[in-house]
Every structure is written in C-alpha cells, then in structure tokens.
Amino acid sequence: MKRFHVHAHVEDLAKSITFYSQLFGAEPSRVEGDYAKWMLDDPRINFAISARGGEPGVDHLGFQTDSDEELRELEARARAADMSLLDAGQTTCCYARSDKYWLTDPQGIAWEQFHTLADIPVFHQPQRSNSGTDEQPACCAVGAPAR
C-alpha cells in the first residue's frame, strides 16, 4: 500500500512540531535537531518537516511504497507517460536509506517516489564513487529533473 508524502521547510522546528502534533492528534514518529516526521495511518501520510534551509513552505510531494514492486509499478507508469525522471537509485536522505527517483510536474513541483529500506542516524550520507570521491546523490527536491 502506498503512503502520500509531503515535506515542508519550516522556520521554527519546535513551534511547528507543536502545531502539527496538535493538528494530527499525534506526536512525531521521529524527531531530530533539524527534522521531524509523522507516519500517520488516518490519513495514510508520511508528513515531514525540516529546518535545513530553503524557503518555508512545501518542498516536495511524493509517494512512499511498502515494497520494491510498488515502486517499480509507479516508475513504469511514469515512463509509459513519457515523464522525465531522475533515478537516484539507493540513496540516503532525511534520516533514511531509500531506493528513489524524482519527477517534476508541469508547474515545477518536485515529486519523490521511494521505498524506504532502513533508518539511518544522520540526515544524509555521501556515497563513494568508483573513483573514491564523495558523490552527492539526489536528496530532497534538489534532485528533481527540470520540467
């Protein structure tokens, strides 16, 4: 089953955690110094906020899948519709290791489609390329392809 995903930038993380906890009637499932996430079942949503720069407001939208098969189904649908997508493969972002790719809608809104593989203790981990240098895989909406 898929879960709708919204990631927003906020100016004051503590005030925003208080607001959204009251709005959702639930405490976040994960809180870090610069990030919080609610994994809600009613409605089924992965709602994340971060205070990591960027303009306040919605950063990107997306779908989180429960399986690799569901992710491949969404990817096949995007490719069949000739949508430009950036396949980030396995990457680390938002305190998780995920298999993901990015789309951009006609208005320029970034859409992330991903399957979370594991939680990690840091927001992002650079990956090593075959040449031994650090690579920056697509993390958050910076990886979305131009429309």
Spatial strand arrangement across the major sheet: 2-3-4-1-5-8-7-6
**What distance lies between the first and last C-alpha atoms, to the nearest angstrom?**
28 Å
How does the major sheet shape up? 8 strands, mixed
Task: Average the pLDDT over all residues and give the rounded result.
Answer: 84
CATH topology: 2,3-Dihydroxybiphenyl 1,2-Dioxygenase, domain 1
Q: How many beta strands in the DSSP annotation?
A: 10
Number of helices, counting only DSSP H or I runs of 4 residues or more: 2
Low-confidence parts, pLDDT < 50 over ≥5 residues?
none
Whole-number radius of gyration?
15 Å
- The shape, in one word, is globular
Q: State the secondary-structure class.
A: alpha+beta
CATH architecture: Roll
- Tally of individual domains: 1
Helix and strand sequence? EHEEEEHEEEEE
Beta-sheet strand percentage?
Answer: 35-45%
CATH homology group? 2,3-Dihydroxybiphenyl 1,2-Dioxygenase, domain 1
The CATH C-level name is Alpha Beta
Describe this structure in words.
The chain is of the alpha+beta class. It has one domain (3-143): 2,3-Dihydroxybiphenyl 1,2-Dioxygenase, domain 1, CATH 3.10.180. Helices cover 17% and strands 44% of the residues. The chain has two helices and ten strands; from the N terminus they run E-H-E-E-E-E-H-E-E-E-E-E. The protein has an eight-stranded mixed β-sheet with strand order 2-3-4-1-5-8-7-6, with helices on one face. Strands 9-10 form a two-stranded antiparallel ribbon. The mean pLDDT is 84.
